[in-house]
Amino acid sequence: MTLQETSRFAFTPDLTICRLLNGMWQVSGGHGRIDPARAVAAMLAYHDAGFTTWDLADHYGPAEDLIGAFRQQLAARSGDSGLAEIQAFTKWVPHPGLMTRRIVEDAVAVSRRRMRVDRLDLLQFHWWDYRDRRYLDALKHLADLRDAGQIRHLALTNFDTERLAVIVESGIRIVSNQVQYSLVDRRPAARMAEFCAAHGITLLTYGTLLGGLLSESWLGRPEPSRGELTTVSQQKYKNMIDAWGGWDLFQQLLGALKRVADKHRVGIAAIGARAILDSSAVAGVIVGTRLGIAEHIADNARIFDLSLDADDRTAIEPLLARSRDLMRVIGDCGDEYR
Ligand SMILES: NC(=O)c1ccc[n+]([C@@H]2O[C@H](COP(=O)([O-])OP(=O)(O)OC[C@H]3O[C@@H](n4cnc5c(N)ncnc54)[C@H](OP(=O)(O)O)[C@@H]3O)[C@@H](O)[C@H]2O)c1
Predict the structure, then answer these.
(1) Under 8 Å between Cβ of 309 and 274
(2) If residue 126 lies in a helix (H) or strand (E), which one and from where to where?
(3) What is the CA(28)–ligand 1 centre distance, in A?
(4) Could you tell me if 137 and 105 are in contact, meaning their C-beta atoms sit under 8 angstroms apart?
(5) How far, in Å, from the CA of 216 to the mean position of ligand 1?
(6) Which letter does DSSP use for residue 337 in this model?
(7) Residue 229's Cα: distance from chain center in Å?
(8) Hey, whose CA ends up nearest to atom 45 of ligand 1?
(9) Residue 317: pLDDT above 70?
(10) Which residue, judged by its Cα, is nearest atom 26 of ligand 1?
């Protein structure tokens, strides 16, 4: 299978990505047992279908090691030209504390070793506590490591607009911010998107499919108890639905999305992903992949055939307008982590 040309996006002048990224939080536990050999076989299948871009983190269990094993197999099969087709975006999520050059460089070295790369394609930095301004120390060291060739591009995850401005003003070059963005959580559209557009920063989004809750599987179902939510991702986004407007309103949204999906002969998830891909600030939508357990290659390939029209948006918008304002309830992007 080859994806449509529109699946590709010039993320930076030297890095083209698939606009649907394969998310690897799902290998870290809490989403079913991952078998490493089956997982790597599934990675090859995603890659061969055109889904060449991966989102992972230092703390997603074996994710960085799986990238290393996947690269090894791809190199054995296709050599350096095969390896050049992969984009693997990791994160560094340190505990708050002293951010010396040594500490930062050691963390980057661990990811490079595990992923079997000389240079990280993208390092997305997370920080837990803005009262501790040592995030700027960490970013300055990361920028030096980028300039020294250990990281290709520097990025952020879960930073709010205010702190993004602090970072930009301090002269640190950032290419993207990874944030939660879905039809339910539209906070990035409030402030973040405009700031990013003005500063040449793009968004990578997660939670766009609400851990799978945004699908036919949940349409028409009574509100689930916590025990019925079988992954930690579903539990996380059920909390978001509760903050947003509750299960009844969510069911009405699923119903409206189903009508739009039927019109386009795709699934509800495809409509949810397409709607966010259409936001001008968004470079890519990350879709969690339970490697070797569940697979959505053909369904998600269809997202690139799909184009939403004004009628589709008119069908969805009134329901979204009835929700609570998550900027008020939670705060700007990432505030739920603080
Ligand atoms: N920066 C951060 O703080 C942060 C936080 C969370 C996630 N992330 C990143 O974002 C990724 C996405 O994870 P997420 O937890 O937000 O989950 P998600 O992408 O909203 O949902 C993933 C789930 O959606 C279902 N799905 C995928 N395609 C589908 C389709 N076509 N039809 C129906 N269902 C479909 C699958 O469920 P089944 O497997 O059950 O089929 C899959 O496990 C993570 O892996 C991670 O890389 C980052």
Answers:
(1) no
(2) none
(3) 13
(4) no
(5) 15
(6) G
(7) 21
(8) 23
(9) yes
(10) 212
Angstrom distance (rounded) from CA 323 to CA 249:
8
Of 24, 157, 231, 296, best ligand 1 pocket probe by most atoms within 8 Å of the beta carbon: 296
Structure tokens at 254: 């699923």
Express each pLDDT in 128-171 by its tens digit: 999 999 999 999 999 999 999 999 999 999 999 999 999 999 99
Cα 291 off chain centre by:
16
Alpha carbon of 44 to those of 47, 72, 86, 280: distances in Å?
5, 11, 11, 30
State both tokens at 260: 């739009």
What pTM value is reported for the model?
Answer: 0.98
Distance CA 338, CA 329 (A): 14
Burial class (CB in 10 A: 0-12, 13-18, 19+), 2: exposed
> Token pair of 317, please?
């918008």
- Ligand 1 atom at minimal distance to the Cα of residue 267: 32
CB 180 within 8 A of CB 269: no
Is 238 within 8 Å of 224 (Cβ atoms)? yes
On the 0-12 / 13-18 / 19+ scale of CB atoms within 10 A, 171 is exposed
